[in-house]
Automatic annotation (TrEMBL):
The keyword Transmembrane applies. InterPro entries: Bact_Cytoskel_RodZ (IPR050400), Cro/C1-type_HTH (IPR001387), Lambda_DNA-bd_dom_sf (IPR010982). Keywords: Coiled coil, Membrane, Transmembrane, Transmembrane helix. Residues 68-98 form a coiled coil. The chain crosses the membrane at residues 114-132. Pfam families: HTH_25. One of its GO terms (molecular function) is DNA binding. This is HTH cro/C1-type domain-containing protein. PANTHER family: CYTOSKELETON PROTEIN RODZ (PTHR34475:SF1), PTHR34475. The keyword Membrane applies.
């Protein structure tokens, strides 16, 4: 990309045009024009903008359409080479990772779903244990049964009648 940028810079300087003039005429920011000339295409936002800037800048400098197409094709070929190189590197990294043994990959690794499942089962067992223990203690507790026909009940009834009679007669 630097070769393309040098070519554009040489054409601009030969024409005696400043970047500020081009910025005003094309409405492309100066920093993007400098990036094109220096080969720093990472600054330019998106490939579509880059191709458009290259096309407009080249036309502005008076480069014929055939050369513009050649410049853009050169850029696209460079991008394809970068992409292919990146994919090759990623493929090598993947192959290296794939060669590891299963033990190395999952060393001391326990999936979170198994932790949740084990915790849930443990809570259920603890709950059942506490429930059975409380039921066992409830069975040991004696329940009093009421007695029928007790003399104390009759005495309490007679005292209540006496008190009620006393209260009524005092008014």
């Amino acid at each position: 990309m630097k070769d393309i940028g040098n070519f554009l810079r040489e054409r601009r300087e030969a024409s005696g045009i400043s970047l500020i003039e081009i910025e005003k005429d094309l409405k492309i920011r100066k920093k993007y024009l400098q990036a094109l000339e220096e080969g720093n295409i990472d600054i330019i936002p998106g490939k579509t903008y880059l191709v458009g800037y290259l096309r407009n800048y080249s036309k502005y400098l008076g480069i014929d359409d055939e050369n513009i197409i050649q410049i853009i094709q050169t850029y696209k070929n460079l991008e394809k080479q970068k992409t292919d190189l990146k994919e090759t590197k990623e493929e090598k990294i993947y192959l290296k990772r794939k060669d590891r043994s299963i033990f190395e990959k999952k060393k001391f690794f326990l999936p979170i779903k198994y932790v949740y499942l084990t915790s849930f089962v443990l809570i259920i067992f603890i709950g059942l244990f506490l429930l059975s223990r409380s039921l066992r203690e409830a069975q040991d507790f004696p329940v009093p049964s009421p007695e029928i026909g007790n003399e104390t009940d009759i005495n309490i009834g007679e005292e209540a009648i006496f008190i009620a009679h006393y209260l009524i007669s005092s008014y």
